[in-house]
Amino acid sequence: MKTLVLVFHPNLSGSRLNRRWAEEMDKQDDVTVHRVYEAYPNEEIDIKAEQELLEQHDRIILQFPFYWYSTPSLLKKWEDAVFTYGWAYGSTGNKLHGKELMLAISLGAPEASYTPDGAFKYTLPELLRPFQATSNMIGTRYLAPYAVYGVMQLSDEQAEQAAKAYPAYALQPEAALNIVNSN
Ligand SMILES: Cc1cc2nc3c(=O)[nH]c(=O)nc-3n(C[C@H](O)[C@H](O)[C@H](O)COP(=O)(O)O)c2cc1C
After folding, report:
1. Secondary structure in 3-state letters for 14-38
2. Which atom of ligand 1 is nearest to the CA of 69?
3. Which has the closest alpha carbon to 54: 98, 12, 10, 105?
């Protein structure tokens, strides 16, 4: 199984977790790590190249820090550009059908904030609904997201543990059993 890790972080050199996550994934077999902000400093996305990369892999991981209960803006731009009609959706748009889609997200706030009684009121799965709807539309299997909360509060040792735990979780074939119900 070939895995593609698409890293969307606007300042990877200043990152604590996403940079280390990408470095840990660089060391793995059958994994392609694509740092999208670095690939397109002017944000001019090469749609054909991105689509070819996606077609060559079986498990697609979108990795990003949570920004304003959502994604860094280039990820949204990338989705809008790359998931084209006739390729990703529509009667002939089947190129991603059957592939696995997983989100890997770092969050500044603690998990307790993402509860009905917490500061933000909504859970992470609720906030990620647009990804589930998108996954339904493009015919991928939406695997349970990998999330690390409270990144600001992590000690160096905990951050390092979180970095090492990521490939062990995200690359296991069994993650495919963890498909989130689409309704
Ligand atoms: C513009 C911006 C928006 C952010 N919005 C959120 C947010 O909505 N929820 C949250 O938990 N953390 C938020 N954060 C904190 C980031 O998620 C956190 O800094 C990041 O996950 C840490 O990962 P890194 O070390 O790889 O940068 C935000 C940070 C920035 C810069």
Report:
1. HCCCHHHHHHHHHCCCCEEEEEHHH
2. 8
3. 98
Residue-level pLDDT at 102: 97
Residue 183 has what pLDDT? 43
Structure tokens at 75: 């990820």
Residues 6+ apart with CB under 8 A from 17: 65, 106, 148, 151, 154, 159, 162, 163
Answer yes or no: is the C-beta of 132 below 6 A from any ligand 1 atom: no
**Average pLDDT by consecutive 10-residue portion of the chain (183 residues)?**
97 96 97 98 98 98 98 98 98 97 97 97 97 98 95 92 94 79 51
The two beta strands, 141-142 and 146-148, are: unpaired
Q: Is the CB of 23 under 6 A from ligand 1?
A: no
